[in-house]
Amino acid sequence: MRIKEMFKDDINRNINGVIKVDEKTNVTLSQEVREYVITKELKKHFVTFFDAFDESFDQPTADIGVWISGFFGSGKSHFLKMLSYILQNKEIDGHPTVEYFRDKFEGDPLTFELIEKATKSKAETILFNIDVESVTTNADAVVRVFAKMFYNHLGFYGENLKVARLERFIDKKGKTEEFRRVFEEKSGESWLESRDSFDFYEDEVEETLQEVLGMSEKAAGNWFNGEETDEISIDRLVDEIKDYVDTKPADFRLLFMADEVGQYVGTDNHKLLNLQSIVEELGSRCQGKVWVVCTGQEAIDEIIKVRNDEFSKIQARFSIRLSLSSSSVDEVIQKRILRKTDQAKEILGNVYDDNDSVMRNLFSFSGSTLDIKGFRGQEEFIQDFPFVPYQFTLMQNVFAQIRKHGNAGKHLSGGERSMLSGFQEVAQKLESRDERTLAPFQMFYDTVQTFLDSSIRQVIDRAQRAADNHEGLEQVDVDVLKLLYLIRYIDDVPANIDNIVILMADNINLDKIDAKKKISESLNRLLSQNKIGRTGDTYNFLTDEEQDIQREISNIVVDNSEIVVEISKRIFDDIYPSNKYRYGKNDYSFDRWVDDLRVGQVQNGMSLRILTVATDETDKSELKLTANSSGHDSYVVLADSPYYDLLQQAMKIHKYVKQRNISQLPQTQQNIIRGQQEQASQYEKEATSALQEAIVSGTFYAAGERISVQGNDAKSKLDNVLNYLVSTVYSKLEQVHKHYDGKTADANLRDLFQGKSERAVSFEYEDNYDAAKEMDDYLERQLRQNILVTMSDLQKRFTAIPYGWSLNDILAVLGLLVSYQKVTIKNSGNVVQPNDPRLLDVLRLRSEIGKTEICKRINADPATIKEVVEFLRDYFDEMDIPNDEDGLAAFIIKRFQDQQNQYKLLLNEFKDHRYPNKGAVLDAVHLTGEILTQYKDNIALFNKVIEKEDALYDSQEELSKVDNFFENQVSIFNSASRLVSSLTPDRNALTDIPEAKEDLKQIQKILNVDVKNYNYNEIPKLNSLMSNLENIHDRLLDEKREELIEIIQACLGEIHSKMEDSKDYDLAKGISNRADQQYDKLKEDLRNTRVLAYFAAIENQIIDNKDRAIKELDQLNRPVQKPEVKPKSNVGPQQKSNVKSKKIRSVERRLVFNQASIKDENDIRNYLEQVRDKLETLLKDSDEVEIR
Fold first, then answer.
1. Rounded-to-integer distance, Cα 267 and Cα 841, Å
2. pLDDT at 20
3. How far is Cα 78 from Cα 84, in angstroms, rounded to an integer?
4. Measured between alpha carbons, how far is 287 from 138 in angstroms, rounded to an integer?
5. DSSP 854
6. Residue 467 in contact with residue 378, Cβ under 8 Å?
7. CA 1119 to CA 1110: how far, in whole Å?
8. At residue 913, what are phi and psi to the nearest 5 degrees?
């Protein structure tokens, strides 16, 4: 059965592919309304719109904005047009428009009731394409279009607002017909046909205005020549619209239905705000009588993102938002074009049943991320035949991408209506084929080619001519080229050979193998003529300019070595960036090679060599590779993969770009080159993937043989190669069985060196015995040859092949040797003891390992050890002394350090006191210090102990006396020192007493610590000497205290007697009381004073207080002298008196009467003679001496 006969409707009937809102012929209207398909999505939008519209009849509303959005081809313009037809409800072929929709909503009567309700009221729609009708690009462009369409709707000339306002004025006067008649009489032309050029009818217009409106000649001339602007404010326009609808019935509605508003306002803020203001004013002032319905592309969301504040306000004005998608394209095409007859359905059903499995296998796309598929069942096959379901989805993307990339004119509508015509045209071309035919996708090219830029068409046309003239191309090449153009921008369907075969399938029983062969040959022919490009296994269409640039790029030469460098970067920077391999808990460095190129620094260990297609095949032979890999090298021979060609092509592009001054090229070439740069990046990504595949599928050689390597990706493959290499190259790696890792590694290593960790029964049973024996033998050999071994040497040897030990492994083995006293560690010539806190640093730090020697142990003489042990047992009075060399050395160091610390603490006691035998303590500190200086060398340490045996015994004896002093005698010693110090002021008084003088002398002798061989046995005598001296001192204090109290009593008696004789008793009593208080205080001072010397001062105060009180009392008893009246004299003011004043000298009593001890009369005479001499001396220069 021919395809043409399968369709229910004539496939060759005229169908409008693109819907235009201004297309209104009766034939077009009738077909559009009759064939309009109400999809499930559209039903929802009809409900939303008419529900809101109908509600405005019951409740006034300001929400009168409707925004219909959708991508190209979503049917938004057609939907807008249908709403306009329904609301106007004009008769079409004798029936109201709404009646054509009754059957369309047959299964949904409620929705049709909403629609029918809206049509019962009178409505006028102003349907227009805002872009087409625009007359200006000014800020008020939107209001200007709305004004134009409103005046046009009223029958006025909206193109020119000056003329439109005149016509509106005349209409209000009711003289429209008269004006038109008079103008035609005067001009001979119809007004409606002439008003677009009314400027050329000045006389006729002025005369008509004078006759019809009664204007004067001057007024008419002024209007005609006036400079009235073509502008109109939103406020004025809304007023005029409101005036118009107010003349209509209450249920009248006026709708402005503007198509392509989203595209028109674009990113113009002024237009957006203009539109917002119009809708806002119409809503608030007309309250639902005037509606604004707009369409806009879905892409308008991008405008929202850029100017969210402004657009959110506009969206608020359009509270009713209907979003259409292209998801129902297939439904429309199926119902308008592809409906089948019953006979066709039966035939196609049988075809599907016979070829179900064949078709499932046919439509299996490679690498596609788009939801494209073949037939899901018999019903879909019948419904879509001769098309395949994926074609509906794919063609939507093709149309969208053609517009997006600027390859089409603005009139290409990339949605269902142009798709409608596209599918119709393809079906027409296949109309003579049979039921096994499929529509190949390249046939859709002819449905869009007339809208494409000439630069695209020329490429195809030239290819067609070449094919027609057999100039290197065939017809299949042209078809492939058309297909590659259609899917050029469809990233979701890679243009690889498998997908191209599927897309070009034209028969259910296609032989895919044969088709693939033919298409492969076609692609090669196109590539050879630079008609297409290739990226990996995908192909792409090239324009003329792209072909020229592609040709120039192809001629660029890239050196093989440059490509190898780039391959090395891809492998060792991206795929396998590490230059160390972790085996167990250790890291192993390896040299990296790509062909003959070494990557990075030399590690002098293993090597991983990658061989690319650039390596000569003879160098990749099995014989040569097994021989070369017998040492420390491993080889990876990359499998065949396009990585080399991809990188070569990318590098050609980069090199080409560097050679061109891109900024000086035309913009189109700049865009192409930028595309090439993006392509280069894609090549590089694909090259990396191809390299990974080449590694996974490669062949591997190590240890002199071809090896089988497990792994699902490149990294795991290389890991396993290196794992195998490590296990064979580092043959002695497994000698270390016990490892020290983690946070506790250092602490565990220190314990190991010091022999504190758990040990086996003997050296031979240690876990790391094999490794320790290996290291011990090496040190022994070096010792025999007198070769010094540093820690640096040790690390280099045992980290290298065949050992491969980590640093911690080396330390673990070395620690085992140290703990068994087989090895000595020295740093800068000094032995480093196992407990030295610097131990691990000198074995690890780069700055130290060259100075750290690892020596075979030279053990001390057993006789020396025995002698030292015996001495220490006696010296420390201990039997448990270690008898092994290291244990003994550690014991000596520990005990003598303790001793030295104890002696240093003891020296602190001498800081603030003078104690005996400080020199012995200093000698002991020095002696222990001498011994400890040898702590780094066991033999020297033992010898020093033996050398200092006598000195140690002597020191111990002296220090025992010092220890006894501080334990038992220091308190007595301190008491005596304090007593002597406290009696210093009274020393003269005490030395006058022979017994006290002798006691003091004995005490000072015992306290003298500067003597040699201090006699500690004298210290106990201090108790009796101090007691006797203190008793004598107390007796002297008591005697002097009694003497002074007697003097106080005598002074008080004298003061009290004087008080009794006083003339002013009350004042005298006050003086006496004050004296009593002062003497009470002095008595208290006497009782508390423990120093004889202080009594002299108190005695002076006693006498001073008495003299002061007596003097005050004498002044009370002295008679008051009346002033003498002197006779006048002739003595002038300048004359001096000859009267001489008396000179009185006042001295303290103690200066005259010294303290003395009187024993006999002779002492009395001597003492009085001294007093006489002093008084006579004082009177020599004075008239009177007053003794206080």
1. 70
2. 54
3. 10
4. 29
5. E
6. no
7. 16
8. -140, 160
Q: Residue holding tokens 């439509």?
A: 363
Tokens of 1132: 């002038």
Contacts for 195 with CB less than 8 Å, ≥ 6 apart = 157, 160, 163, 167
pLDDT digits (tens, 9 = 90+) for 632-644: 899 999 999 899 9
Other C-beta atoms closer than 10 Å to the C-beta of 155 total: 13
Q: Which three-class secondary structure string do you get for 313-347?
A: HHHHHCCEEEEECCCCHHHHHHHHCCCECHHHHHH
Q: What is the DSSP letter of 1133?
A: T
Long-range CB contacts (within 8 A, 24+) of 433-437 = 433/2, 433/3, 433/386, 434/1, 434/2, 434/3, 435/1, 435/3, 435/6, 435/347, 435/348, 435/351, 435/385, 436/351, 436/355, 436/507, 436/508, 436/509, 437/3, 437/386, 437/506, 437/507, 437/508
Which amino acid belongs to residue 695? I
How sure is the predictor about 116, in pLDDT bands with cuts at 50, 70 and 90? very high
Q: Spell out the residues 6+ positions from residue 368 whose beta carbon is closer than 8 angstroms to its own.
A: 492, 493, 494, 499
Report which secondary-structure segment, H or E, holds 1165.
Answer: helix 1161-1180
> Residue 214 and residue 940: Cα distance in Å, rounded?
142
Q: What DSSP assignment string belongs to 666-714?
A: -HHHHHHHHHHHHHHHHHHHHHHHHHHHHHHT-EEEETTEEE----SSH
CA distance 1172 to 1174: 5
Residue 348 has pLDDT above 90, yes or no: yes
Q: Are 1071 and 1052 in contact (CB under 8 A)?
A: no
- Find out whether 1063 and 1117 touch, Cβ atoms under 8 Å: yes
In the DSSP assignment, the letter for residue 441 is G
895: nearest Cα among 874, 879, 872: 872
- Record the tokens describing residue 315, joined without a space: 């969206």
Measured CA to CA, the distance from residue 523 to residue 502 in angstroms comes to 15
Write out pLDDT tens, residues 507-544: 999 999 999 999 999 999 999 888 998 876 889 998 88
Of the listed ranges 148-157, 298-307, 904-913, the least confidently predicted one is: 298-307
**CB 146, CB 256: distance < 8 Å:** yes
Q: In the block, which residue shows the tokens 């001769």?
A: 386
| Euclidean distance between CA atoms 1188 and 1177, whole angstroms | 17
SS3 of residue 717 by DSSP: helix
Tell which residue, 606, 596, 513, has the closest CA to residue 561.
596
Q: What is residue 586's DSSP assignment?
A: E
pLDDT for position 417: 43
Query: Angle formed by the axes of helices 141-154 and 161-172, to 10°?
Result: 40
Here the contacts of 584-592 (C-beta below 8 Å, separation 24 or greater) are 584/739, 585/739, 585/741, 585/806, 586/733, 586/804, 586/805, 586/806, 586/809, 587/806, 588/722, 588/726, 588/730, 588/804, 590/722, 590/725, 592/568
Cα–Cα dist 617/635, whole Å? 14
- Amino acid letter for position 944: K
Contact 1106, 1075 (CB under 8 A): yes
Listing DSSP states for 988-1005 in one string gives HHHHTSHHHHHHHHHHHH
β partners of residue 702: 634, 705
Burial of 10 (0-12, 13-18, 19+ CB in 10 A): exposed
The answer to whether the CB of 650 falls within 8 A of the CB of 658 is no
Nearest to 711 by CA among 702, 729, 698: 698
| Distance from the Cα of residue 537 to its chain's centroid | 39
Do β-strands 830-831 and 823-827 pair in parallel, antiparallel, or remain unpaired?
antiparallel
**Does residue 1142 surpass a pLDDT of 80?**
no
For helices 949-964 and 862-876, give the axis angle rounded to 10 degrees.
10
Q: Is residue 690 within 8 Å of 642, Cβ to Cβ? A: yes
The CA distance from 236 to 233, in Å, is 5
- Other beta carbons within 10 Å of 29: 17
Cα(611)–Cα(210) distance, rounded to whole angstroms?
Answer: 101
- Any idea what DSSP says for residue 861? P
706/724 Cα distance (integer angstroms): 12
Summary mean pLDDT of the chain: 87
